[in-house]
Specification:
Layout lengths: L1 E6 L7 H15 L3 E6 L10 H7 L3 H11 L3 E5 L9 H10 L11 E7 L7 H13 L3 E2 L4 E3 L15 H22 L1
Parallel strand pairs: 1-2, 1-3, 3-4, 4-5, 4-6
Length: 184
């Protein structure tokens, strides 16, 4: 089992990057192979149908599709911008959706978020589900949102709240079990 993990954030001190780092640790403890990507690896222009028609998919989109195809599932931790999906992530979804055949079809994703807000970015995850599911992706029903992320992490990258740490670990394990069931 191999998973692609990525924070949909470009900011160095991103709470979502911290959450992805922690998820990588917890998955590796379960002997799951992880491919941790940085969102900046998939640089691409704003979606433009004319550019797509003339030049095809940008290198960043092709690189993401290659990494996505080499894994059994994807975990994305996304910030919430103005109660919705960040434009950078939506742009990635839109470019990838132009591949043939539809690259998102039957790709299985777990969505997570970390935010200083009291809802942990959860509203943005609901908006992110819509285009992914419309493109044929299987978005795992349970999402993980970390509220008050600005005070949630310990120095070692774990969560201060043991119950939240356990909940994250269980969410990841249940997602892996879900992927295993889909494979059979």
């Amino acid at each position: 089992m191999k998973l692609l993990l990525m924070a949909a954030s470009l900011r160095k001190g991103s709470f979502n990057k911290k959450l992805i780092d922690l998820a990588c640790v917890l998955l590796r403890e379960q002997k799951i192979e992880v491919d941790k990507a940085d969102f900046s690896e998939f640089d691409m222009p704003l979606y433009d149908g004319d550019v797509n028609e003339k030049e095809g998919l940008p290198k960043g989109a092709l690189a993401f599709m290659e990494r996505m195809d080499a894994t059994d599932g994807i975990i994305i931790s996304s910030p919430e911008y103005n109660f919705s999906t960040p434009g950078t992530l939506k742009n990635l979804i839109d470019w990838i959706s132009r591949g043939k055949p539809m690259p998102w079809t039957k790709k299985t994703l777990l969505l997570m978020s970390a935010s200083p807000s009291l809802v942990g970015g959860n509203r943005g995850l609901w908006h992110t589900r819509v285009p992914l599911e419309a493109c044929g992706a299987i978005v795992y029903p349970d999402m993980f949102s970390l509220a008050s992320a600005n005070t949630a992490f310990q120095e070692d990258g774990s969560l201060k709240d043991d119950d939240l740490q356990k909940r994250l670990k269980i969410s990841l394990i249940e997602f892996v079990k879900f992927l295993e069931k889909l494979k059979h």
